[in-house]
Design goal:
Elements (H helix, E strand, L loop, with lengths): L1 H7 L4 H18 L12 H47 L1
Helix pairs in contact: 2-3
Length: 90
């Protein structure tokens, strides 16, 4: 349980979770995520599914890009502060 709490409270967790969700979404889409269109569905169900997929396809790359930028920003900040702490202690 302590390991789970350590992971969830880690500063990298939110951005990493978003990035994982984006990668998972596109992986599922790559392996046949549009299978709903191959079956006979009511038009409103098809329209709702298409709107959801369109929204996710437009917003997920933006979310992934923001997550990568956030992860890199945090990593650089932590490296810089560690380097500063190392030079001040020496």
């Amino acid at each position: 349980m302590n390991t789970l709490m350590t992971v969830v409270t880690n500063e990298y967790f939110p951005a990493a979770a978003v990035l994982l969700a984006v990668v998972l979404f596109w992986t599922v889409g790559l392996f046949g995520g549009l299978s709903l269109l191959s079956t006979s569905q009511p038009p409103i169900a098809t329209l709702t599914w298409l709107l959801f997929v369109y929204t996710a396809a437009v917003l997920s790359p933006l979310a992934g890009l923001l997550a990568v930028v956030d992860l890199l920003r945090r990593w650089v900040r932590n490296r810089r502060s560690a380097r500063t702490a190392e030079t001040t202690s020496a």
